[in-house]
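Predict structure. Input: NAD(P)-dependent alcohol dehydrogenase, 365 residues.
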Amino acid sequence: MISATAAVLRAGDEPYSVEEVTLDEPGADQVVVRVTATGFCHTDAVARAPRFAALLPLVVGHEAAGVVEWTGPEVSDVQVGDHVVLTFAHCGACSQCSDNHPAYCESFIERNLLGKLATGGATATAADGAPIGTRWFGQSTFATRAVVDARSAVVVDRDLPLDVLAPLGCGIITGAGTVMNVLDVRPGSSIAIFGVGSVGLAALLAAKAVGAESIIAVDLHPQRLELAAELGATATVLGGDDAAVVARIKELTGTGAHYGIDTTGVPGVIAAALQALRARGTCASVGLQAGDLVLGGHTISGKHLVSVVEGDADPRTFIPHLIQLWRQGKLPFDRLLERFPLAEIDKAERASLEGRAIKPVLVMD
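Output follows.
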């Protein structure tokens, strides 16, 4: 029997219920992880949407770090006692995974958002014996223990602070990977980042680390822009008036930015990010798009628009790379974190959605 304390989402419009649950045993290629800390990502709030009602009750959470307590018989590259960062689920065998692009796994939606294709650890059991889903992003880490696929566990050095590393598995690799893996931002170039929450600020830190000369942060929250300036933005622009934002970016860069990143998913903002590019510039969209995107003439002059999932990162190699940059002081993503105990998960969620906390991290007792 695997016991855990979990924050269970039982209805989309209700607070989390912190309760004791029993987890199913792991499958042959899975591990049990004692969760030390887990980030709160905006995607976790998506589980409240009506289209996910069929999955409830559900344990959400997918940015965790912890210690391995149990391994299935087919697991060879993760050992009991290993410290690990957990990341998204992927099959490891399809054409995308085989080509080192696991974020585009052919079964990504089923494995991460629909809780399917599990070989074990598929559910938990509440005190009354009712089932609870525990395969959100293959993790469900708003709990003191989680059953995950071994390929989703990235082993890290035991001297590293797990509460700091937890958000690497999604938000940080998404922002940093978009800059480093997808856009391949060059030294001396310019980039405009629309939305500087955790993903946008991770992108900002990565842009600074690779030597971008002009880094422009755009956001609706002045306090986020202040932090962006502290972390390396060369200019900040208060959002809200897309035409004025585009004009300001072109004023700052001459003919427009080389690169743009949209983290908001708002169609009008994506269009503005495209408009703010110079000829042959590239805009990456990493937010869940909320509505139809009308491009108009924004893609003329050889401009590119690319959608990005999880920074197109291979976590087994990219997370250690980011940790090395952090150790060297070149990627201080720990500046984005604010810690909350698991019992205060509703407070952490409100702080995240209202923009008062960049990256809440739930710390287990």
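The mean pLDDT is 94.
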